[in-house]
Amino acid sequence: MPVTALRGPAPRTSRDSPLASRPRPTARASAARRRVDDDVDRARPIQRSLAALLAAACVAAVPFDADAALVNPNTRLPRSARAALRRAVPAINEETASAQKRLEEAAYLLRIPQRKPWAAMSEDVEETRRVLTEKRSDVFAPVRETDRARAEEAYAGLNDALTRLSRAAGTRDVDAFDAQIARALDRLSELQIAQAPGLPFQIPGKYMELPKLTGRATVEVTVRNRGGGGFGLLNGEKLDEATLEITVDGYNAPITGGNFVDNVKRGVYTDSPMRRSETAILGGSSDAAAESIPLEIKASDAFDPLYRAPLDVQSGEAIPTIPLSINGSVAMAKSNDGQSDKEQFFIYLFDKRSAGLGGLSFEEGEFSVFGYVTKGEEYLGSIGTDAVITSAKVTSGEDKLANARQVVVAVESDFAPSS
Q1: Of 175, 193, 230, 395, which has the fewest beta carbons less than 10 angstroms from its beta carbon?
Q2: Model pTM?
């Protein structure tokens, strides 16, 4: 099934793209980057502006224009669902926002293939430790009493990870630093979730009565191939069904995420079809006569989502907070009026070979992405063209759902129907 079944534009390969003929960075730009890498541990000003210098070298060779979002290799697009969800938590506390910025910077610097700027990475870690220790009371000020234990556990894990990070930076242990920076960012994300019990923005009045999700929820979807194709072996036995865990992000897609969780809760997807195409796995059925829900996309530099209009990513306007350009991203299909279908969703099968040079899908910003497959991604390749959702259930976060629709259940009567 082509992507046009999702009622969106057909994907273009890199050869089809008007950006394909854009020149690559010149040898002078490459030499400039090598000089930066060699000097970074010797000059403090260069340490702190490394990312800017790398970007400047590329800009010198490839002038920035409206297509730069898809060309610039320094686009800091999250490379996994885990990273995308971590960055998508609203930062309502100055101290943890600063910590996240510094730790993300340290993680970015670690990916430099030449000599690592250990002095700059170490300073990011130490400054994070100092701020979180000295401002502990401010860090916990937004946390509700009901979330206090979870926040304390996350804070303790973060401190331990920072201690190990400091040690890894001192010994220049790349593998240890890589493992602990991921752990520190995960614990920091848990702490920020505890700090943000609800939405930091108001939903437009005309959508206030729709189901909405005011935080995170997880949904388990169990899939079976009708033709009998399996999903590998488990303890030596054929696995006939696969379970996918979807993390639904109401922080950035409250209406879309709320609609999906509400559908799951009401049993909309139980025994519904799943159909595979080259670029996506389409779940549920679409009723052309049914009312749509508004297209909802939040830009990474915006305070609240944009409604009823796509985000112009290809012209460099912005990148969505929860991007489509990650394998296993989950979004609602397009409705006939160009908005979001009320029931039909899809799991995107992202292929970097058909994306822009910046790693962005050519369909980025055109669909309401509301979450990611966070467990069971390895089964996506085994879902066939004729599969069925045998069950779907909300496993956590149901308390974050507001304005849930009523489930209509037919009740058998002992009396004959009246004539």
Answers
A1: 175
A2: 0.78
